[in-house]
Structure formats: C-alpha cells, structure tokens
Amino acid sequence: MIVTGQAEKGEHMDNMTDKQFKTILEMVDMILDGCKDLEEAKAGVKEIMLDKKFGTAGNEMVIEEFMTGREVSVLSFVDGKTIKTMTSAQDHKRAGDGDTGLNTGGMGTFSPSPFYTKEVEEFCEKYVYQATVDAMAAEGRPFKGVIFFGLMLTEDGPKVLEYNARFGDPEAQVVLPRMKNDILEVMEACIDGTLDQVDLQFEDNAAVCVVLASEGYPVSYEKGFPITGLEEFKKHEGYYCFHAGTKFNGDQIVTNGGRVLGVTAKGKDLKEARANAYAATEWVNFKNKYMRRDIGKAIDEA
Ligand code: GLY
Questions:
Q1: Dihedral in degrees, nearest 10, Cα atoms 285, 286, 287, 288
Q2: For residue 91, which atom of ligand 1 is closest to its CA?
C-alpha cells in the first residue's frame, strides 16, 4: 500500500490491519527513535507526512505487510513458458551465530529445506511459480533464465519475499552439486524453449555449505592472506570448495574479499552433510578466517 494524498492518510490509518499497524509502529519507531503505541505511531506519521519533519522525503510512505516465518529459497529454470524448480535451500544471512550481527550476502546454506514440505511445494506450484512465468509472458516480456524465489513460510501460508533473476549465492553451492542433469543441456533447453522435455532431477541426499569469510566482514577486513589446504578437495568425493573472494598472487591463492570461499559437502542426510562440511572447513586455512558455527541449526528443529 502506498499512502500519498492528504485526505488518504487519515483513512488509511483508521482502516489498517494489525499487521499494517505493526509495520507502521516499527517504521516510525525506527525513524523517530522511540514510539510505544498506535497513537504515537499516528503522531509520527503526521510529523513525517504532514508537518514534513524530513521535507519531501515524507511525501510518500510505502506500507508493506509485516511478515514473519522461515525463509526458503527456491531456484528455477525458465524457458519463457515452462518452469522447472530446483531442490530447495535455506540461507543464513546474518554475520554472527544465532542470526546476530549485520546482514551479509549469505554465510551458509543447506539443501533441501525440511520445511519446504510437499504441501508448501504444491501451494507454490499452484499459485506462485507458473503464475509468475505466465504473468511475464502476458506482459510481453517472456523470461528465459533462472528465477530465484525468496519465500517466507508465514502462518498464512507461503509468500514471495523477493524475486531474483539469477542463482542464489550460496544457495547454488548446495543446490547444483545435488543436480543430476548436465547443466549445459538444461540451459540450452531454456534458450531453445524445450524445457518441458527436460526431466530435472536431484539426488536423494543433502548438502551444506559453510562460507569462510574474512574476520570483520561485512564491515572492514584485510585481504591478501595466503590460503592453504585447497588441494584436499581433489582427494574427497562429494566435497567442493567454491571461490568467491580469492585471487592469484603469483602461484599462490590469497584472500581478496569478505566472503572468501564456500565449503560444501554432501551427506546422506542434512546432519551428515553438516558434519562433513564443518570437517572440511578445517582443511582450509588463512589468516583472519571466520565462519558461523551454527549453519544448519534449523535442521535440529525439523
Ligand atoms: N543468498 C541470497 C542471495 O543470493 O540473494
């Protein structure tokens, strides 16, 4: 909901649902630094939108539904008309254990998500996936490529938080190792419009990725430290090391970013994959190596 005109403001405030009020409260609280109830929120909105405390920045207010629930990422291939979803994954966005600290690009993932049940999948197939592809085609912009559905499993059912036209990172690091198909054939089918003939299949196992970052990420961190142990991954089946913030310095691979490497391991189930991934993080070393120690903690709650 976008609130703009002068007359509208009062009406919207009176007709809002509890969820919308909660959003307003949080938003105004954030802007005005303290706001304890609806009356204060209303006064805050008046201050921002009518009294123009922040000038023209208060001309328009976007009110979004406040959602809570588990997040699930579902990547998909699309050829303009057909969509084939990949296996599900869950990211860990915050820098610190227990989902504390700043938001990051993603500190680790696991796949599949035990919370993405058959029921959730059927709901999304009926109301989200094909509907998205059909809507783009109907607008005269048929989409070919990868769509990333950022879902939230709310009390009211699954909702789409975000769409991305790309693979997720580090979602891809746990989804693609489990894919049985040749990815180039799937991509060619997307280009050729023949995705309906592809039987997209995933292994009946699990994968966990733990991101090795530079201490201080995402704020400030040092770069240029030599990385050792990468050769271990060649010796073990089902283990992968994805480079993110690295570069060559002569013959030596060194750190060159906040998120340095994604260490992925597969296992027969999520718990085994998690143990394998954390064991593999010990193979790799560099100065200032930092990782979350609780990637996949939700696995124990499933
Ligand atoms: N891991 C979240 C993203 O790629 O947007």
A1: -80
A2: 1
Q: Which helix (H) or strand (E) holds 188?
A: helix 183-192
Q: Tell whether ligand 1 has an atom less than 6 A from the beta carbon of residue 91.
A: yes
Q: Whose CA is nearest to atom 1 of ligand 1?
A: 169
**DSSP-assigned letters across all residues of 32-71:** HT---SHHHHHHHHIIIIIS-TTGGGGS-EE------SEE
Amino acid making up residue 149: F
pLDDT per residue, tens digit, the chain (302 aa), is 555 544 344 455 556 666 666 666 566 555 554 556 667 777 877 888 889 888 888 887 766 667 889 999 999 999 999 999 999 999 999 999 999 999 999 999 999 999 999 999 999 999 999 999 999 999 999 999 999 999 999 999 999 999 999 999 999 999 999 999 999 999 999 999 999 999 999 999 999 999 999 999 999 999 999 999 999 999 999 999 999 999 999 999 999 999 999 999 999 999 999 999 999 999 999 999 999 999 999 999 88
Give the angle 255-282-102 at the CA atoms, nearest 5°.
60
Cβ neighbors of 53 (< 8 A, separation 6 or more) are: 47
Q: What are phi and psi of 16, to 5 degrees?
A: -75, 150
Q: How far apart are CA 263 and CA 268, in angstroms?
A: 17
What is the C-alpha to C-alpha distance for residues 52 and 37, in angstroms, rounded to an integer?
Answer: 21
Q: Residue 289: which H helix or E strand, with range?
A: strand 289-290
Residue 36: count of CB within 10 angstroms of its CB: 9
Residue 167 Cα to ligand 1 midpoint, Å, equals 8
Q: What is the pTM of this model?
A: 0.84
